[in-house]
Automatic annotation (TrEMBL):
This is 5-carboxymethyl-2-hydroxymuconate Delta-isomerase. It holds the Pfam family CHMI. InterPro entries: 5-COMe_2-OHmuconate_Isoase, Tautomerase/MIF_sf. It comes from the Bacteria. It comes from Thalassomonas actiniarum. GO terms for molecular function: 5-carboxymethyl-2-hydroxymuconate delta-isomerase activity.
Amino acid sequence: MPHNIIEYSSELEPHIQEIIKAVHLGSLNAALFDEQDIKTRALAYQHAKLGQDSRFFIHVQAKLLSGRSPEQKTLLSQAILKQLSKLGLSAISLTVEILDIDKNSYAKQVVHV
């Protein structure tokens, strides 16, 4: 954990590797997780309507196993937002949302080749 899911305007595709690295680094900088436990992936949206001030968007959902304090969640969201802000993208809305995953129902299996 966390599972970082980046939703972004498809026009930002040329920057997606930088965006993924920024979100991953923000999660690491929060000092709540080992790097091997951070997972980051991205989904482009071709169709979106935003307010007047933004042409593009990046929205990050950081999903965590339940039990983190509000302070830890705030630390994580601010660390991710800080790294995204450093990218210097303009006409963009940057948002980060922290979501809990229920520990009791979460299942995981890693299949090795």
